Amino acid sequence: MRKPEILFLKQEDVIAAGVKNMDKILELTEKTFNMLSKGEINNPSKTMTLIPNCEDWTSYFMSMPVHIGGDINVAGIKWAAESMENLKTPGMPYGIDVILLSDPTTVMPFAIMDGTLITAMRTSASAGVAAKYLAPKNSEVACLVGAGVIGRTMIMALMSSVPTLNEIRLVDLDLAKAQALADEFEGQIKIIPMDNLKSGASDADIIATMTTARSPIVKDSWIKNNALVIQMSLYEIEDETALRAKKIVVDNWAQLKSKGTHAVFSKLVDENKLSEEKIIELKDVTSEKLQLRNSDDELIIFGSHGVGSLDIMCANYIYQNAIKNDIGTKLNLWDKPIWL
């Protein structure tokens, strides 16, 4: 029997295999949502282990198993984790993710790779795809809240998805951090570092929040009537914003709904203040090319909490590139299996 060969890809290998190609990640992201719409992907809700097991957790682990059928046919799982302690530790990422890919027929694993950058890229790519369909026509100004890892990839995604965009207001409590990130994109787009969220959000066509906040930070009164609001966490907008939105588009409603009072949309549904009829999944927007804007004064929200199939789709792309270009380290799961 041939020894089962596993390709191990460290983060540098994942970069060499093309993870920072945002245009490609956007393409794969839209393909994933279209396949979800066709029923070609089995994407169970993620399971989470909080440490400690309470609202004031300091770290957590999530398992995200997926099978992608169709022309891809790959199984995989992402083991995702985040630590508040890492925010205080220089040189340590806040989130650390690992992805494993397997053959759906033999169930043999064939790749293990760093998933941290894949997570960052596909997270913002889902927002980019949403903006492609949901942003106001001829959007020019975006306010991005949070100059961290997702702030960086959100700039990349919106630059690709919203070609009319010409100004990004990058808001962070740490103004020096916002300036440093803005400097990375010098000459590509006008980025204004700011530490005043009200000033940044006022009159912005697109507002995207990428923070670790556990309570609302964007006041409803700061948001203009026809904006697209992108919430990448669970808590960052006020109830009033969700209630006055024309439509709320989400990446996975079953997953968000399971959060109950921990997420603004599901909380309002549970309280019978918000009808589920107002909520649409992004897969239905992309597959049916829905036009949700019928006038110039319609507020739309996109809410995302992460879909594991995006990770596996992107990881499979990285794996294929690595094989073509002889990237990575080959490992054996065993020399000869016992106890058969």
UniProtKB/TrEMBL annotation:
Pfam families: OCD_Mu_crystall. Coiled coil: none annotated. GO terms for cellular component: cytoplasm. InterPro entries: NAD(P)-bd_dom_sf (IPR036291), ODC_Mu_crystall (IPR003462), ODC_N (IPR023401). This is Ornithine cyclodeaminase. It comes from Maledivibacter halophilus.
